[in-house]
Amino acid sequence: MSNAKIITISLPNPYFEKDNNAYLIDAGELALLDTGIDTPQALSALQQALSKQGYRAEEIKKILLTHKHIDHFGLARRLQELSGAQVYVHGDDHDDVTHFDERYDYINRLYLEKMLLWGIPQQLINLIAIRSKMAKLGRSVPAETLTDDQSVPIGKAELRVVHTPGHTQGSACFVLEDALFTGDHLLPDYTPNIGATEVRVDGMLPKYLNSLEKIRAFSGLRTLPGHGREIASLTERIDTILSHHKEREKRILAILADGKSRTVYEIALALFGKMKEHHALLGAGEAQAHLELLEQQGRVEKREDHRYYRPPRPSTSAT
Ligand SMILES: [Zn+2]
Ligand SMILES: [Zn+2]
After folding, report:
1. What are the TM regions of this chain, as residue ranges (predicted)?
2. How many domains is the chain built from?
C-alpha cells in the first residue's frame, strides 16, 4: 500500500560534485528531502519543478536533511522562511547546520590545518581557501534533531531514519514505503568521500564500512541517491564500493612497499594522479582515512611529522 508520491527534482550545483537531487514527498502533507545549495538558480529551479507538478514551495511542511553539507541543506533556511517548514537533521550533524554561519570560519580553519598536516602544497591550499570563502552556499537554519530508527510522520505516510555515519558523523538514510533515500552515503557513479568531509571526527572509514553493511537490509527497495540517477541494485552497488575500498587499500600498501615515508598528499597523488583545487583536499582526505585505519591495524606507521611508512617485516627469528 503506497500513500506517498515521490517526485525527483534536480538542482543545479556548478560549485562542486554534481547537480543535487531533492525529493518531494506528497502524502497528504508535503515534505522535501534535501534542498540543494543556496543560490537564486537553485531556488528558482526548485520552484519551477514544484510548479510544474502543481505545488508551491510555500506548502512544504517538513524538510528532512540527509546530512550537514551545504549542497544538501543550503537552501533550507530560505525555504523555511517561505513556508514555515520544520527542518530535521540527525543529532550528530545538527549543530553544524543550526550554527553554520558562526562555525563557517572555524571549520575552514580546521580544513587548513588538516591540509597542512597532509602535506598539500601551500599554493594549492591558498586556492582552496579563496574558493571556499567565495562559495558560502548555505545559511544557519533552526532544526529538530533526528535519532536512529526514529519515525517521522509525513501526512498518511511514515518516514524512518537510518543513521549511517561515515561520509559525515550525522549522515542518515531515510526509508519511506518502498524507497530508500541515501543522500551521499551511497551514490551511483563514484565512492562518496570519506575522510575529508568530516574534519571534526577521526576514524570515519570503519564507520562508513559498517554503515554500508547496515543498509544492505533494504535491498529490494528503490534506492534514491543525493546525486545522480536511481541506483538499480543496492547490493551490487554496496559490493562495488567495498571492493573499491579494498583495492585502494592494496594500492596504498604497494605505494609504501619501498619502506620510504610519504606525506598523505604524496600518497594521494600516487593513488589519484594530479588533483585540481578542492579535489586535492578530497583525495588527501580519502588517503588519510585509509592510512588511519591501516595504522590502527599496525600495517603502516606514522612519523611525528605525519609522514607514513611501512615498517619492515619482523624478520623470522633464528633459533
Ligand atoms: Zn556530502
Ligand atoms: Zn553531496
Report:
1. none
2. 1
